[in-house]
Automatic annotation (TrEMBL):
UniProt cross-references to InterPro entries, sorted A to Z: DUF881
CC terms in the record's Gene Ontology section: plasma membrane
Domain of life per record: Bacteria
Comp. bias regions, Low complexity: 24-55
Family per record: Belongs to the UPF0749 family.
Coiled coil: none
Name listed for the protein in its UniProt record: Uncharacterized protein YlxW (UPF0749 family)
Pfam family, one: DUF881
Amino acid sequence: MDDERTTDGPPSPDPDDASPEVHAVAGEPAGAPADDPDATTDGPATSAGNPQPSTSGGGSGRSRAWSRPTALAASTVVALVLGFALTVQIRSTAEPDPQVATREEDLVLILEELNTREAELRRQIARTRQTVEELSTGQRQSDRAAEEARARAEAIGILNGTLPASGPGVALTIQDPDGAVPASVVLDAIQELRGAGAEAMQVDGVRVVVSSAVSGSPGALRIDGIPLDSPYEFRVVGPPAAMEVALNVTGGVVADVGRVGGTAVVRQADVVTVDATVD
């Protein structure tokens, strides 16, 4: 009993049964010689006193161990490249092109210049229109003044007897068969016609003006020294109706001529021409 000893570990291997010591080399299967990759063993190789762990599947484990860092590194590189590209793209989009900004500034300057020129042209157009209007107004005023001057000159010429006249009026014919019509009746006829608005008048081709005088005896009448012959023909430019009424009033010229044996006839006319003039 004293010779019996027990141990907690496995029994010591028999030296005769011990197989040669085999060391595993990384990348080579355990139990195979280093110089013979095809060598195999009948069982798992163990080191002296320690069991050798099985190397079955060891190669794939190391491949997975190496592939995981490699994939992680590749993913990191791809992410960095994508991030750099995205940053460049964002920066390119965010930062305006200097040439585009320059073109925009040029366009703004051109637009401002065009607006300035347009405003100046509008001012010039306004000034030109004002000048044209002033000239037109001045021309109209000048034309109106010239027309008024011509009208006054014509009126004065007609009144003075230096210009002929024509227009609506009356024709008065006094018959004096007995040569009894005195100069006073002829003078009354001239005054009545002037009072009714006569503008121009002539008697037997003699122009009657403001300074004209009637003289002579019945049957030998004269106006401004020029003899008259019966019948005495009056041509008068003026308002026809008013002059006819003035001659035919009761106790007027027509009645006076009738009292001395003569006749007086008044006729209105649309156009009466007074063409006798004085020097």
